[in-house]
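testing teh design pipeline on a random one, pls ignore if ur not involved
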């Protein structure tokens, strides 16, 4: 039997043509995971007819069960199906590269020219628009995930746990995943997996009519030896640099903290980009003190307006952490190295998850227990994103925030008299553009940035 990923098996499509298509996908990958998945579906299924509808959705469902950015993992998975291991690597790298370069350039602008009135105004406008975008995510994901009272209760419990009790995000996800797994295994109707992202409408492309076909390609057949070999290489590429940094610089060094924290994030962040952002914001701002809440919003604004996964905001977080704790290194050099390290440990695990598990994906088809776990996790994520929206809102709309506690419960509350009226007005306009006029995220962000610049110049 030919090995999965073996060199003696022909590509499904010519590699050169596949590379051109993945460059195009990467350049058009705006709008968060839903938009990125829609772009891949339109190009790979509808236009190129390389992969059928059912196989596309089956791959997506597997990626949604994994920690990390599902759109990035889906690109790796399909690239691997079409062009073996090299195809998966190329698809995954190209999917991230435009966003990495864009965020890096904007990060330089941010630290070098951030106090310029024009730049200040742009990021002021982006913060307000990002708050509206996160609110939209609460409604969009909630509408899909909260399909019964059990899911609503899970979402409410997750919100209480993270907002009032400050229980860490990974614990919430693990707990709800276990509950969903047990509920799905028991066959309870409330935990039956629902649909994920909507891929498209109209007549679907059957797997048998696609270039890939309905059968499992020879290189994609389960082969434990190949999976363990490639996984061992990827695990070494992931862990060895982090271990080397820990041994050379010590655990208190900022590079060691970045390597360990974002490696942990890659393992525990289920539930999509906004759930990841809630975890990163909680730790990077409140625990490590690498940046301020407003700066986290600035980074998210960068990620929203550049191609690639939204979790590219992690690169901005690492950049600022390295810049502000450079030690004896030039701050810009330290920031650049920190951005590279953050990106490496954030996205390399996606290749590991896909190459380790994708050859065995057929065995997971229709697994009720795993579907139940995914449904429960997605419901919990709604509560986590609501917490993120409130946290962002407090720091965007109010100049002062104070902590209120009683017993084991505590919460941040605004000082009502400190409301920032320009931020409130611009956030309301952004929300009106998204919810009432159905403007795209990119258009809303650009409009808000322009209004923010105009207001700042007017007041200067």
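output:
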């Amino acid at each position: 039997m030919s090995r999965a990923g073996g060199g003696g098996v022909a590509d499904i499509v010519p590699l050169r043509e596949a590379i051109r298509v993945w460059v195009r996908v990467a350049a058009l990958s705006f709008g968060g995971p839903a938009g990125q998945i829609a772009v891949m579906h339109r190009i790979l299924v509808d236009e190129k007819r390389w992969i059928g509808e059912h196989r596309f959705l089956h791959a997506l469902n597997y990626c949604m069960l994994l920690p990390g950015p599902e759109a990035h993992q889906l690109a790796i998975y399909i690239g691997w199906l079409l062009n073996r291991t090299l195809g998966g690597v190329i698809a995954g790298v190209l999917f991230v590269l435009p966003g990495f370069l864009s965020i890096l350039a904007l990060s330089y602008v941010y630290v070098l020219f951030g106090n310029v009135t024009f730049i200040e105004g742009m990021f002021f406008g982006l913060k307000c628009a990002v708050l509206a975008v996160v609110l939209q995510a609460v409604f969009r994901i909630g509408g899909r995930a909260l399909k019964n009272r059990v899911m609503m209760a899970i979402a409410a419990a997750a919100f209480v746990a993270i907002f009032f009790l400050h229980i860490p995000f990974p614990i919430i996800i693990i707990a709800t995943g276990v509950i969903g797994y047990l509920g799905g295994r028991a066959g309870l109707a409330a935990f039956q997996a629902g649909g994920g992202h909507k891929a498209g409408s109209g007549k679907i492309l059957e797997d048998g009519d696609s270039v890939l076909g309905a059968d499992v390609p020879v290189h994609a057949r389960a082969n434990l030896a190949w999976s363990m070999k490639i996984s061992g290489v990827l695990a070494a590429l992931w862990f060895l640099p982090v271990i080397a940094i820990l041994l050379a610089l010590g655990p208190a060094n900022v590079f060691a903290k970045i390597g360990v924290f974002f490696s942990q994030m890659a393992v525990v962040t289920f539930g999509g980009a906004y759930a990841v952002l809630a975890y990163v914001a909680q730790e990077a701002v409140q625990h490590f003190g690498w940046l301020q809440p407003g700066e986290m919003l600035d980074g998210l604004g960068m990620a929203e307006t550049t191609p690639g996964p939204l979790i590219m905001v992690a690169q901005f977080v690492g950049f600022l952490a390295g810049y502000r704790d450079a030690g004896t290194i030039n701050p810009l050099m330290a920031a650049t190295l920190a951005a590279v390290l953050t990106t490496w440990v954030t996205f390399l695990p996606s290749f590991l998850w896909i190459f380790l598990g994708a050859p065995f994906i057929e065995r997971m088809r229709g697994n009720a227990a795993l579907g139940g776990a995914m449904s429960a996790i997605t419901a919990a994520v709604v509560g986590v994103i609501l917490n993120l929206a409130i946290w962002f809102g407090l720091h965007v709309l109010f100049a002062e925030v104070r902590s209120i506690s009683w017993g084991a419960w505590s919460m941040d509350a605004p000082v009502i008299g400190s409301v920032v009226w320009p931020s409130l007005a611009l956030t309301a306009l952004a929300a009106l553009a998204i919810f009432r006029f159905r403007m795209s995220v990119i258009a809303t962000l650009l409009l808000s940035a322009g209004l923010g610049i105009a207001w700042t110049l007017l007041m200067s």
